[in-house]
Amino acid sequence: MLVIKKITKIFNPRTINEKVALHDVSFTLEEGDFVTLIGGNGSGKSTLLNCVAGVYPVDNGDIFIDDINVTNLCEHKRAALLGRVFQNPIMGTAANMGIEENLALAYRRGQRRSLTWGITNKEREHYKEILSTLELGLENRLGTKVGLLSGGQRQALTLIMATLKKPKLLLLDEHTAALDPKTAQKVLEISDRIIQEENLTTLMVTHNMKDAIKHGNRLMMMYEGKVILDIKGEEKQKLTVEDLLVRFGNVSGEEFTNDRALLG
Amino acid sequence: MLQIFLGAISLGLLWAIVTIGVYITYRILDIADLTVEGSIVMGAAIAASAITRGINPYAAVGMAFVGGLLAGLITGLLHTKLKIPPLLSGILTMIALYSINLRIMGKANISLLRMHTTYSTFEKLGINHNGSVIIVGIIFVGCIIGVLYWFFGTEIGCAIRATGDNPQMVRAQGINTNTTIILGLMISNGLVAIAGALIAQSQSFADVQMGIGSIVIGLASVIIGEVLFGKRNFFSRLMSLVLGAITYRIIIALVLKLGMPANDLKLFTAITVAIALALPVFRSYLKPIKKSMKKVD
Q: By percentage, how much of chain B surpasses pLDDT 90?
């Protein structure tokens, strides 16, 4: 479903601020894989996601989504294949537009926009139905401006928007990091449910080890721009935080000292 | 007095079209587009030179519209393709248009006295000049509001509105934000050029300098409209723009009547807009004072 072939991304090349964010990264996601991607600050996990999404062009290597080479495709063209949820709840929605207008924009992802009405009544019923599964009461507030919603509500809405039109690949970029723990849990539960129901291939970046272990069928860890651990199947099911710390130490030769990841 | 009032309304209706154009860039796209200062003159210049060559005045307004679209296209390309900041892109097009407008007119101003204009049709029916301008103004403003109300409800229109709100999200939904920004700028400047064409015909001349300060007048009208007439839904917002533009003209007419020298007009407008834009800041200063006063109570 997603094939990453030796991609390299260097920020500020040939300057004193040169930073190799991704170093020869290669991996393949099978259809239906739900990968949690974990790593410390600056390990390259968000850069990787942004490269897949087309926000940054890569310096080297190829990216295939569903057998289509998207390496040189610009962001808005790749969007036809991707559903994205961002770390900042403000990023995923248009604050001054209504809930239904935001959904309508997402419903047409990857389609050529025409001069027909932006929302039809038939769609509204569909939106109501889907929103009611969130159990946040949003289905009765279709016209409400998204800017009036809480961070958690906006993130839940962004999730719905990302999956309203089934994406080939769902990219979740620390999408619960900006929420309080209780809301974060709720949003994660919703993510889990949608991913399972729709059998979505997913790449979820998180800095929280427990979440990374609890969710998904495969765990990858990044360190200094490389994927250093890739744990799947039964091994993943049995994984504990202690295991992960030991294995990180063995591979990187360092102790894992990211408080955010440990305490979160 | 009534004539002053009617004059203000007629001029306000024509400037309402400028206001709608400014609203599209300033509020919907979140870009302060200075191209307006050039495209309003461009509209006037195209219409005036077309009319003096005997072209039907309505066709002349259409030609002005196309000119405005092109002006917006240039600003849009400078900003999106060449990555020049929007404010600077607008300034560049505005300056370039000064020369282009002179070329279109062949001289610094063209008189339209005793020419057949869009207003002549109604003047022939015995309606005076202000009355004719009001009728033509209402027809144009009505059509433009109708078309825009429809357009911004369509898929493309929604995409343009979302672009000003959150371009990152819009790209994630598979929309090319370069295209939506260019489209918005084109429509805005097209409308402003229509206004320029109509204003030139109503004042019976086109002048290469007539655009100076038009962006500020447009902004003033947008803000007056929002403050006085609310912004509930899109239709009421469009109406508030028209009412804002008319109110602005009435205020100006009254201030002049009260004896303010006409030369100070632009200073007056600039100060009004500065105060209106700074209102949120003033309010935040006042909040702690109000709170402490309540505590004292």
A: 84
